[in-house]
Amino acid sequence: MENISLKNQQTQFSLPDGIHYLNCATRAPLSKLAEQAGYDAVRRDTNPFGLRPDDFFRGAVRVRALFSELINNPDPDRIAIVPSVSYGMAVVARNLPHKPGIQAGQTIVLLESEFPSDVYAWERVSQEVGLTIKTVRMPDQFPKGPVWNERLLDAIGPDTALVLAPPVHWMYGVQFDLEAVGKRAREVGAWFAVDGTQAIGALPFDLAASQPDAVVCAGYKWLMGPYSLGLAYFGPAFDEGIPLEEGWMNRLDSNQFHRLMDYQPAYRPKAYRYNVGEQSHFIQMPMLEASLTQLLDWKPERIQAYTEDLMQHAWPALEQLGCFIEPVHGKQGRSHHLVGLWLPDYADPMAVQQALLAEKVAVSPRARALRIAPHLYNTPADVDALVGVLTDVLKR
User: Where is the Aminotransferase class V domain (predicted)?
Assistant: First the structure.
């Protein structure tokens, strides 16, 4: 199945006719499979009679296994249930002062224009430990990817305590070679954290190749799941770390409800201590399980191939209008599921978005670019609608 091209999956979704939703990077529409899983979960919740202690844990066990398969993680016990990227990055920040060898004057390396949750997380710990934020500037010229990747690697040195990098920049779709970044971080003894939200599920991700210390991923974008539920990988560096919460479910033998008053000082192993409270998510967890199962069937590499083929004729047409896009350049060029389209200098991105919305075309303006994010439910008609509106607006 891996080598068989995917066909359009529009019938697997409930998007209304006439809507051109090229905006999965903002929020994914739930598939019919995930939608049904939610309905079934609500019906189960109307009658909790017969609920057993193990039922509080069982759904998360399945989701950990599915997510682990998606990212090539051999140990599902290293996956924590989190509500958001900010929560997962807060775990990293909470434990950074206890990193072996940490000292004042070291740096945290970030990319320019990173998502706010990946920036705000470090302000407090930087002040407490005396760290400096080093921001790697995006090149002005095209192509941006190779030079930006080179600048990132050059910024990582013996004084680096932590490196944060995504597989794909959340605004522009530029890829970063995480295998090279991880190798460089290990060479200098820095921790390496990844925000995989805008890639994992749609772009192949190999944990074993990049070897990050932490990977955090919101569930409502390319994992195609419900809002306020995410997943995080925490490597051996965090095995004896400090959690954000002291939840009862994170302790050993917490499924033995008749013994909950025998307070247990020991945590469940590995990443379990970092689970958010009320991690069972009886309604949302089955939905995420359904979406992950579907993604493993579709396969991220086939999603990349589908979106590449879908958009291949649009990019030259838009470049002729004076727009710019990052070229394809292996692990340092643009992705196919999320592409930043830089508009001509005279164009107002917000005004362009309003013109698109008037024709029921959904994309997201981000700084000087439109973020275009197709998926398997999109058809050539969606692409034609996008190109048609932009042609009309940019030729005025």
Answer: 62-364
